[in-house]
Amino acid sequence: MAYLSKLAVAMTQSDIDRLLNKAWAANTRRGITGALVMERGMFFQILEGTEAEVRSLFKLISSDSRHREIQLLMERPANERFFDDWAMAVCRPEGSKLKNGFSAIEEAAASPNPREAAAKPIDDFMHVLREHLLHGESTTV
Q: Hey, what's the signal peptide range on this chain (predicted)?
């Protein structure tokens, strides 16, 4: 599952760090893995795990007042996890490949049919993001 949302309230870096640490602990308990990308007040997150756990977590995220304009962009079963080494890898898109990938997802989200338009950009971004993470260019909480 992948979604894009906007931050609804102002948060300090300390607030974000506390949120991420709580989310990492919850994801670990639930057996959820994935990655979170933060850019310009937006979150793009990929969640992996059992269908029930991922849906349950997305329901919590959707009702969290810190998020607004939440768009579910991808929901599909996967044969294997793409981010299985990370309960929650966190990064900001630095470097042209990540910035371009994030921009492509934003553009797709603004299209008339965001799920269809976002499929390829998300797949492409997942590969670039995984390479980025494998080279230790992230914060893993």
A: none
